[in-house]
Amino acid sequence: MLEIDCPWCGHRAEIEFAYGGEADIARPGDPAALNDAAWAAYLFSRRNPKGWHREQWWHLHGCRRWLVVERDTVTYTIRATHPIGSTTPVGVGGERE
Amino acid sequence: MAAVSRYSWRALLGRALAAGRGWPTLWRRAEPRRHYDVVIVGGGGHGLATAYYLASVHGIRNVAVLERAWVGGGNTGRNTTIVRSNYLWDEAARLYELGLELWETLSGELNFNVMFSQRGVFNLGHSPQEMREITRRVEANRLNGIDSELVDSEALGRMVPGLDVSAGARYPILGASYQPRGGVARHDAVAWGYARAADALGVDIVERCEVTGIVQEAGAAVGVQTNRGFIGCASLGVVVAGHAGVLAEMAGFRLPVESHPLQALVSEPIKPVLDTVIMSNAVHGYLSQSDKGELVIGAGIDHYNGYGQRGSFQIIEGTIAAVKALFPAFSRLRMLRQWGGIVDVCPDACPIVGRTPVDRLYFNCGWGTGGFKATPASGWVFAHTIAHDAPHALNAPFSLDRFVTGRLVDEHGAAGVAH
Asked: What are the E-state strand segments in B28-182?
């Protein structure tokens, strides 16, 4: 069970959250101007790193806000969490054991 | 004394008279050579099957399988062993059905008992809408010549004692699809059997050999950097499951897959109580009973990306809740062992097998939570693809470029897990 430091609610258990996938993916401003390869890259291509990952989580059973988490996908250590749109990390967290 | 190369009752008798001496190791600990016709990265079931069929079907024996850890130590050694072919779309059904047909003769083909037990597979339906979808899939299977039947809850109750088919169940079972030719196999044996058979045909299996880079010249793959030096090749096949993205990055392109933990667990061994395979999408769990008596239980992925070969405990709790809902008597059982794999999940729950943006480089990945059943088929079509520099008819629909053309093959329903 991960422990995630919600920027608004503080340290909460993973089951209060829903996972939202890779962060920092900007929706194209003019989709009609993209060719198929570029549109496919937006829809499907993902970094999927073995290591540090910036990802989105939704505090579904709490404040219901979205946050960005920086987590290592091997150790599951969380080094930072912050509101989407902000680059200032707020808290830490990680695996509860 | 002469070492045994082929298993038979005669060999067994001979070795018994020699007090058990003379059994050879299953495969050589090969020293990697500097160049091969084909290098396969990934020594799991799929990679070893690929090497075996390259040698046995295509006559290409100058092959090395490079495995960073030990043979079958990845997802091949961590799955819940279910084998079936009852997928919805023609493209997927035909590929998995090839797998099932290969399974049916595999032990004889490999001279190694993979313990393939065709005990049937049930996919349960818990709502009228699920039953409509199941009916549709059963009819689609029949049109493709795949054995598939619709079973109502009364028949289920007779065929699977212990299953709660009462109207008072929290998620009542209305019926199921049934594939009699489906079942389970001994997952480790598949890896060992293919490894032994490939080795006997001259394939070098190199364990503790980790690929650290893919070397290209003029847009074509010419070899790999490893922790044991550079190994050159004319063709390079990568089949590494959850690490597909890591290897793709070495080659300079990205995949539409994400790696997630997939957990599974076994109960303490008990007397035979379940003689088939039960799967439920809605309640979300699947189980069978191994020949050792343990219930082998699995469900869905942890939703976060993960390479840690472990996940969060609430997934296990949810899985056990599903098992209890289906088989109330199993609530008494203690769970013995729990583990996780790293599954590479594709947006349409179908694999990617074929060519890549780099010439002479072929990728086989994206099997997600359902790769074990396809082990022989995956190896068969991947070997063809490498040997011909073109896909087999059965993996042609599963190209990397389907995500650009839009020709996805959506098997989330038949894949049976909630991604």
From this structure: 35-41, 63-66, 82-83, 121-125, 149-152, 175-179
Q: Between chain A and chain B, how many beta carbons pairs sit less than 8 Å apart?
A: 66
Residues in B 111-170 with any Cβ partner in A closer than 8 A: none
Which amino acid is it at B86? N
Q: Is A50 in contact with B406 (Cβ distance < 8 A)?
A: no
Asked if B355 and B337 count as a contact pair (C-beta separation under 8 A), the reply is no
For B309-338, the DSSP string reads S---HHHHHHHHHHHHHH-GGGGGPPEEEE
Mean pLDDT, range B261-278, rounded to an integer: 97
Residues B174-214 pLDDT 10s:
999 999 999 999 999 999 999 999 999 999 999 999 999 99
Residue B64 near residue B36, CB atoms below 8 Å: yes
Q: Is-contact B137 B177, C-beta < 8 A?
A: yes
Sign of CA dihedral B266, B272, B276, B278: negative
Backbone angles phi, psi at B136, to 5 degrees: -60, -45
Facing residue for B308 by CB, picked from A1, A43, A75: A75
Taking alpha carbons only, the member of B288, B310, B291 closest to residue B301 is: B310
Q: Give yes or no for B347 touching A (CB within 8 A).
A: yes
Q: Do A73 and B314 touch (CB under 8 A)?
A: no
Residue B257 forms contact with A (CB below 8 Å): yes
Closest CA to A66 of A54, A74, A49: A54
Contact B314 A47 (CB under 8 A): no
On whether the pTM is more than 0.90, the answer is yes
Contacts of B403 in chain A (CB under 8 A): 40, 43-44
Q: Report the side by side order of strands in the sheet with A52-58.
A: A10-13, A2-6, A91-95, A78-83, A66-72, A52-58, A18-22
What residue type is assigned to position B319 of the chain?
A: T
Give residue-wise pLDDT tens across range B248-261.
Answer: 999 999 999 999 99
Provide the 3-class DSSP secondary structure of residue B221: strand
Mean pLDDT, residues B93-113: 98
- Using CA coordinates, name the residue in chain A closest to B259: A48
Helix axes B187-200, B375-388, angle to 10 degrees: 30
d(CA A59, CA A68): 11
SS3 B411: coil
Chain A hits for B243, Cβ within 8 Å: 50
What is the Cα–Cα distance from B160 to B221, expressed in whole angstroms?
52
Report the pLDDT value the prediction gives residue B414, as an integer from 0 to 100.
82
Identify any residues that bridge with B10 across adjacent strands, giving them in sequence order: none
Cα–Cα distance, B113 to B7 (Å, whole number) = 10
